Amino acid sequence: MYKLLLCVRYLRTRYLAFVCIVSVMLGVATLIVVNSVMSGFSTKLKERLHGILSDVIVETERSNGFDESPAEVMAKLKATEAGPSIAAMAPTVEVFALLQFNLKDRYGRPVPVTKHVRMIGIDAEQQAQVGRFAQYLHRQKGSLHPSFALTPEALDRFTRNRLAADPDAAFRIPLEGTPPGQPQPGSFLNEPNITIPASPPVVVPPPDLAAPQTPRLPGVILGYSIAHTRWKDPETGEATEYALLKPGDDVMLATVGSGGFKPVYSTFVVTDYFQSEMSEYDGSFVYVPLDELQRLRGMDGKCNSIQVKLTDDVRDNPMFVNNVIVPQLAKAFHPTEARVASWQQHQGPLLAAIDIERGILNLLLFMIVGVAGFSVLAIFTMIVSEKYRDIGILKSLGASNRGILAIFIGYGLLLGVIGCLLGTGLGLAITEYINEIEAGLTAITGQQVFDRSVYYFDRIPTNIDPMTVLLVNVGAAGIAVLFSVLPALRAARLHPVRALRFE
Questions:
Q1: How confident is the model over 80-102, as pLDDT tens digits?
Q2: Are strands 263-274 and 250-256 parallel, antiparallel or unpaired?
């Protein structure tokens, strides 16, 4: 009992103990905040990647796609041992392309803009079934039946753009104030006077002509960053977002045919935006109807990728998917014909880089707790030197070496526990209000701490992992105890006669 009483008394009377507590507290709080933010970004990134990609991707590098039709390829996948684990499939065509559209400069002149993009041909409804495609759409967000259809507003804007771009449109519109009978702009001859005969004319039935074909207006879903730009006012620092392309504007997409040599291109009309909040994908992905891209490239209804969604009982088990499902699906194809990979394997280098960066950052930040451990070592050494007489009295009263050792080790543990509790509270509070803190720092310094143009996140993502918080606390308390062992051993080995010799 005396050991606990002495530990509490030293804690209340020794101001140096406050330095140890603050050191441990700051180290624990820093580790919790950094881990929460890193975990938040990692979770957000994995969620976005998994939403863009299906559970398993079957793709070929052949320019003309698989030899079989999409239905035959999906039937081969369904016939494998992993067939019962397949919930849905969607064929796609993915190629690199050039996107071109016109912008008006300050003088109103059209200026062509060209961007390098990834053009993906999909069936919108099937793509929504294998991933979170519909969740990332701007106008049709969460729709069960997304499509490339033009809205009436988009069709009206497209019609007005075409009329404005037609140089002869003005000559076909009568000018106001033109006297009757005078030639209108665009006419070269006056209409002759026609005499109406007294007898009714003979009615001649019109020839049977085929109905005019409806012009093709294939839609396109553009990445949000392609169609929008952000401009930052250098004086106020406020960022303003501008839409470069609106629904109803037309763009031209050019790529190569299925043969790989002949360039092909077509005009598409913007119908919606794809916003995954990841600048790399929002700035490069362009979705078009699957049948239009197949027709444009002359693929004869074929595809070069199959997106596979697995059932709920296996899709949340990455080890089972990578080691069992993927090899079973790969058996349906020759190694040179197709590549089968899960979404984690498909994005393996990126996910591995995130884990490595997080581990290195934790290792470096854990040195802060190590600094707190050295402060515990220095302060405990000073306490042992100052308490020679008290240690001698305790030993002369019957305290054992183990008892003295337990006093100082318990003191170190008490400092570590209190520092960990305060650090955990501080770290959780900073994590909870990190966006408000970021806004305050931005207002004070005038510089944006978190640039939202990189990821288009509205808030800093955080994810508090209870296991990580527990490990940080255990590690910090363990370091405090570890660095108190050496001074405790020195105090325990102290002889009472030597301690009281000069008293």
A1: 998 899 999 999 999 999 999 98
A2: antiparallel
